[in-house]
Amino acid sequence: MGRVAARGYGCGAGEQEGRDPVAIWLDICHYGYVARKQVLVQLDDELVEELDRHAARLGVSRSELIRRAAGALLEAFAEAEAEREMVESYRRHPEDPSEFAAFERAALEAWPEP
């Protein structure tokens, strides 16, 4: 499960705060859905037509397609943030070339000759 799914994006996560996790799980199993919040978004006709074409091709509703797209965008944001944090960490603590050379020597010594 990706970070976005784990965080509950697109699943009415804000509405579930404070509820017993077991009760939430039982509701999901019993009713087969997670509470969602309806959001009104204005889109131009061309965008709606294109969304409808893709939704039909995938066999999903326009709403489901938009939920998936929003989840993918949030996942991309989370991945970009994680990458930014990793780059910043390497800037603060750069790799030591001598350590890398030692690892490379050890790997070459352990690798069998052809």
Description:
With 114 residues, the chain is mainly alpha-helical. The chain folds into two domains: 1-38, no CATH class; 41-114, no CATH class. It has six helices and no strands. The radius of gyration is 23 Å and the shape is elongated. The two termini are 41 Å apart. Mean pLDDT is 81; it is low at 1-14.
Radius of gyration: 23 Å
On the 0 to 100 scale, the average pLDDT is: 81
As a percent range, the share of helical residues equals 55-70%
Order of helices and strands: HHHHHH
Q: Give a short account of the largest sheet.
A: none
Structural class: mainly alpha
Low-confidence parts: 1-14
Overall number of structural domains: 2
Count the E strands: 0
- What is the CA-CA span between the terminal residues? 41 Å
Write the layout of secondary structure elements.
Blueprint: H1 3-7, H2 13-16, H3 21-31, H4 45-58, H5 62-92, H6 97-110
Helix pairs in contact: 4-5
Please give a handful of descriptors for the protein shown.
114 residues; 6 helices; mainly alpha
Short description:
Helices cover 69% and strands 0% of the residues. The protein is mainly α and 114 residues long.
